[in-house]
Amino acid sequence: MKDALLDSRGGQLLVGLAAGAAGVAGSYAATGYTPTFVASPIERTLSRTMPGEIVTFAITYLGSLGQQLNLATAVALTWLLFGAGITAAVLAGRETNNRLLPTVGTAVFTWLVTAAITRTLVLALGPVVPAVAVVALAQAFDAYRGSTDPISSKRRRALSTVGVALGATAVGVSVGQRGSSMGEKAPPLDAEGVDNEDLQAKLDTAERNSFDIDGIEPLVSENFFEVDINSIDPNAKAEDYTLSITGAVESEETFSYDELQEMEAVNQFSTLRCVGDQLNGDKIDTALWTGVPLQRLVEEAGPQSDCDCVLLKAKDGYEVEFPMEAFNRGVAVYGMNGNLLPRGHGYPVRAVIPGHWGEVNTKWLTEIELLNREVDGYWEQRGWEGTGPVKPTATLKHDTMLDDGQRQLAGHAYAGLRGVSKVEVSTDGGSSWSEATLSDPLPAAEGDGPAEDAWRQWQYSYDPPGSSHTAVVRMVDRDGNVQTSEETDPAPTGPSGWVSKEFNS
Ligand SMILES: Nc1nc2c(c(=O)[nH]1)N[C@H]1C(S)=C(S)[C@@H](COP(=O)(O)O)O[C@H]1N2
Ligand SMILES: [Mo]
């Protein structure tokens, strides 16, 4: 048996790790980027058990990179777990001189581990085939030992094994990607309860009212930010979807997706902003949301909450608690900008709660529990205080020189239910202020007024002084309150302060 690849410890480990990588890729090929991918539950456990400081650091400074690192760690851990088990099977086969043990052991181990982690029996076969194939090939290559075949040298057998494993991994990854719904555009909304004319008219108004300025989002965002506690989103099916109203109610109620779509819907503009946004950051966007008022659903159950507070629960394990008063203004949303809700934004159904920080806008909403006393949700357990009203903000996202020699500045302003009455710009570091031009407001959900919870765009042009100066932006709410100049970090209550930018001429 001398000089067999599978006889040396190094060779066993190499084959174990190569087969492990093929196994992880095989699982991905079978499931795509969904919660049944073998690394997904591990990634969820990581995100749930990670200390609050790390989660806070990741959301504030790394953005989605934090989630990618988390996912990479989960994939690496899965790979090591597979690798260790397969190496042990190979080793045991050699020790007992049993030719079947390496492949059978690999099959049983990868299947059992995957089935236990993902709780699926058939999809758990995904890792088995490629992992067993790599081990079997390594055994077959070893059989050529001593012949004149090109793979007779040990080094070549090792390289061939790794090569086959890499090939299997590449195939697995590309198959998995094809089966994933990432980047897919959501299909158009087609629900009984929706007034499609009203929907289209509102989208047209949003387009008409948006400034034609490059580099700032139109009034309906083209690229809506995403914040998730996990990097792999739930992929629920509408047919199986139910929304339950539980807890302090007269009678618990359950609504199916069809039932929700049959109820009379509202089309409502709302801006979402994450409490972990930066000053002048990008975690703020606006959409036209379509769905059923939450209050109507809860009324059917007969609310009896002692604390007038509610806990929203979601399919990804997310939870958030906040006052009934804010909840009662909210909508159980299944449409976004005239299309079905995309998976990344909470398909099939999410909550949209006007005026409060993004975190209460629960995606993949499954349960509304009325409480008798307050509790902490996912982010509150990690030190954030982000369930209340948003802080006012005015961003500066664009500056260009116009043909007439003026400099044009532009951005957005948003203050939740406090409303934006004006944006003021200073080009002398805050000594004197001028009023910027605001985009016409988006229309209200019902009636002729302005949307109660939507941002405005602003623009301002001035003659540059030819020497260095600082431009500063601030907004004023409907009651005449000027946004505070005091700068705070995002954690724990959200960023505040005036945005400024220096120019050399
Ligand atoms: N189920 C669930 N809902 C969620 C989250 C989440 O991770 N899981 N993130 C929340 C946070 S912190 C924000 S800011 C908003 C972001 O919504 P978006 O991803 O659609 O922009 O969703 C909220 N709802
Ligand atoms: Mo958030």
TrEMBL record:
Cross-referenced InterPro entries: Ig_E-set (IPR014756), MoCF_OxRdtse_dimer (IPR005066), OxRdtase_Mopterin-bd_dom (IPR000572), OxRdtase_Mopterin-bd_sf (IPR036374)
Ranges of compositional bias, category Polar residues: 428-437
Protein's GO biological process: sulfur compound metabolic process
Region (Disordered): 425-505
Record field: transmembrane: 71-93, 100-118, 124-144, 156-175
Ranges where the Oxidoreductase molybdopterin-binding domain occurs: 234-379
Domain Moybdenum cofactor oxidoreductase dimerisation: 395-485
Alphabetical keyword list: Membrane, Transmembrane, Transmembrane helix
Listed Pfam families: Mo-co_dimer (PF03404), Oxidored_molyb (PF00174)
GO MF annotations in UniProt: heme binding; molybdenum ion binding; molybdopterin cofactor binding; sulfite oxidase activity
Domain of life: Archaea
Name of the featured protein: Molybdopterin-dependent oxidoreductase
Organism for this UniProt entry: Haloarcula salinisoli
